[in-house]
Design goal:
about 450 residues, alpha/beta, Elongation Factor Tu (Ef-tu), domain 3, 16 strands, about 30% helix
Length: about 450
Amino acid sequence: MGVKDRVVVIGGGLAGVEASWRLANEGFKVLLYEMRPKKMTPAHKTDKLAELVCSNTLGGIEITTGAGLLKAEMQMIGSLVIEAAKEARVPAGGALGVDRQIFADYITSRIESHPNIDLIREEVKRIPEGEIVIVATGPLTSEDLSEHIKELVGFDTLYFYDAIAPIVDAETVDYSKGFWGSRYNKGGDDYFNCVLTEEEYKVFYEELINAETVEPKDFEKAVHFEGCLPIEEMAKRGYQTLLFGPMKPVGLIDPRTGKQPFAVVQLRKENKEGTLLSLVGFQTKLTYPEQKRVFKLIPALRNAKFVRLGSMHRNTFIQSNRVLTPFLNMRKREEIFFAGQITGVEGYVASAATGLLAGINAGRLLRGEELVVPPEETMLGSLVRYITSKEGELQPMNPVFGLLPPLEKKVKDKMKRKELMAQRALKSMERWLEEVSLVPSERL
């Protein structure tokens, strides 16, 4: 079997094992590189493939949750991760919880025993030339390989510390507590400005500077750049600091009063449909419960549903919207694919799902077939399109229903709407699998 009949996969995490499993089952030779245990990361503790570091849950089971729908789609495609999760499942309410050791042992055994996979325990410092390669090295990519990826994708498109601002469900914002508009009327009504009075700002400020924060792990410690400070750190510099920063009202006139508000929090559309709104400049290290408590002190957000909470942590990822096609290969180097958290997806399930897609397309490239991406009505299709086409700066994204296109007919009941969108997604995935000649498997 020659070079043209094989794929090099770098990284033995969830994305890497999914890609390897898909390719090996299609008859291709896979060289899967994993540097552990020869070189450990600051987060991992074992030499097992697909070691779960942060949590033992893969998110919700119900298809009316973003993670649940994505898992159902993955099982239809034939996911090793979902297979292992079912084998290692532990009680976790509405989530898919697993015994981490059983989970990692199961996947490691399956990969090591596959006749088409060579597991090579070595660090890859440069992406090999003349090979079809899937880079699935995760958020803790080694320094040497990170430097080579920088050269490959451009120094300004690889991020090492991400500052993520919270995102809210647009339907849960109280629009009577603010107004749409841009500063000095430049541009359209691109932002919703949540208004705070002086008293409301004072309460918000006091709670913000006294709220509980997450202590960074050793591998996440970093000096924060001035343009990327957590909002609570900014606030601690003085009572008025935020009024000259992300909460400044300058250039904004409330059309309801004809006056400039005391303070504003700007919400920006996170997707074209405007179903998701992000809090501009609100990157934070507050704990998740504290984020919900403190940010709901903003009048327009008192009943808001947060679809993603903010964070600041070590996370090597590329600006996929500037580098990758929707098929997860590079625009300038079609033989190089990226998968997992390095693409800008967030969480275990999304990482594994992109590994599946990268494996499918690497195989199709080897066979000389047209590359594919699931329909945008599916969670995988919408997530991949988001990370590869978002305008402006890309920040890591979870699978959430706000990424899916709206239904043709408006449905007021939120749960019913999600059920209909999920059913549409699964039917669309089933049709797509038939169209691209992938045999669907049993649903979760």
